[in-house]
Backbone:
């Protein structure tokens, strides 16, 4: 059985405070604290890039658990902002981490649904190919494509990276997955000429419409009831979307973590940043669901077995 | 058992003849015909992009086999030249092809090793998630990043796309896979500032060193002898690399297809373009091996079961 054994992360120390932008973007404390729920956004330091943030997340992982690099057979990076389009950044990372030559490496291009998708991709790939130790990275620095004058995105997205150690001695294992795509609505979140555009209202409507329906299906597929779930780990889009989902699905607020006040929406890193804190917890069953770019979503159940 | 049932393809009709560039690039007929083995390179037509080439490959597939679009549960696109970095081009394609909402879509960033990697990724992902029908696309138009003044790349790479229909009623199924990465050598094939750079000699040395070794390992892993293999489908890098591999491994020339004279090296599409012609053949066992960007490689055995 392949699953998540440990998670390491890295969030750059560099921050921009949204309180400093109140006049510029005509917003008040209530908007910052209760609507978007992001007080400061993290930004990469000089000299950092997608791969470098991954190396720093890996260093953090190594502080938590001994890793024999020679045993790593697989490395997958979820990103839509790689160091460059050629080569895949996972290959650059392979070199930086000095991993063995028989290590399979590839990038997967997905946004906010990327971690949950990536978990299914790495688990199934490792299982089919008889692999026992792999690394699933997320690193999608939107600061590379954000126009600082664009309120919609500048005050929301933060840079960060995570790495999940995927092994045959896991702490959390996944159940059945649900995946979905509404490709016809892709224009709500796009990058053109190296500049990000987000139709916040479009993304909000998409999430509010599809996520409750998906969770119902997911629970049925896994033969679980909503009360069997200890935590609902949503992609940390904004406080407003999380609060809306809590209301629409009828969840207990304490079962739904929201924890991005200090760094922002880190795209595919937002879910593993929450799960990281659960590795040593007693949380038995979690729903994890990512949604956004594509538009797309992916969900699964994580069960503690160790 | 999940495998390849059919393959469709698209190569743009637009061509540049290398014979017209003989003076400019100081090359003779022997170089064109026997060294690189590419007489003309294909180039996308006005209005085409990565996704549009995929749609045209899909149209070709539909001419060969009836496809119930509502049954497609998974769409993976191998590319390092997507329409844009956000969203993943597979989502755009999902919309263009009018696929169902429960269809999982993602892009995988890999170059010349991408088709073989992608085959393992889609097979394992579909199997783990109980899916029966999927589409594996390759579309990596290097013309988007080639400097027409750069002889190394301008005369070699052609645009094209393929789509493999992956189902539980396959014609070819894969055996065990081998994967490898030498991330420290990634600088031999990179794209910076939207411009491709290739150290042809570096890539050649890499392939000549790693491919023979990998094929030996692959055959052992699959408990096969070299004489059990009817065809060796190498990534179609250039005539010179294919001829070198034939010599170094000691293969019969007629077992090794080379067929890119009329369109060039189409990156991850080069292998499925060869396999496409084998679907209706009596070829029982093939080695498929891709190698390049990363630097990386991937190989497997394809066995006809239908």
Residues:
């Amino acid at each position: 059985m392949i699953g998540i054994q440990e998670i390491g992360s890295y969030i750059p120390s560099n921050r921009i405070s949204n309180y400093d932008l109140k006049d510029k973007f005509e917003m008040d404390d209530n908007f910052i604290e209760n609507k978007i729920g992001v007080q400061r956004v993290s930004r990469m330091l000089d000299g950092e890039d997608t791969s470098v943030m991954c190396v720093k997340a890996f260093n953090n992982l190594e502080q938590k658990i001994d890793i024999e690099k020679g045993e790593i057979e697989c490395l997958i990076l979820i990103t839509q902002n790689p160091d460059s389009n050629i080569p895949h950044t996972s290959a650059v990372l392979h070199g930086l981490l000095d991993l063995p030559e028989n290590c399979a490496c590839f990038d997967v291009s997905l946004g906010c649904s990327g971690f949950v998708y990536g978990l299914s991709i790495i688990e199934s790939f490792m299982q089919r190919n008889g692999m026992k130790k792999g690394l699933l990275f997320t690193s999608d620095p939107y600061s590379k494509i954000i126009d600082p004058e664009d309120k919609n995105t500048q005050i929301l997205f933060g840079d960060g990276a995570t790495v999940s150690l995927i092994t045959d001695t896991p702490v959390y294992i996944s159940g059945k997955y649900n995946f979905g795509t509404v490709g016809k609505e892709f224009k709500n979140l796009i990058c053109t000429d190296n500049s990000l555009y987000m139709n916040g209202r479009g993304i909000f409507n998409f999430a509010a419409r599809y996520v409750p329906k998906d969770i119902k299906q997911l629970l049925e597929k896994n033969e679980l009831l909503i009360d069997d779930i200890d935590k609902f780990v949503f992609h940390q889009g904004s406080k407003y979307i999380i609060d809306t989902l809590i209301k629409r699905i009828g969840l207990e607020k304490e079962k739904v973590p929201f924890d991005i006040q200090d760094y922002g929406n880190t795209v595919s890193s937002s879910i593993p940043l929450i799960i990281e804190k659960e590795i040593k917890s007693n949380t038995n069953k979690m729903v994890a669901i990512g949604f956004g770019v594509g538009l797309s979503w992916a969900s699964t159940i994580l069960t503690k077995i160790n």
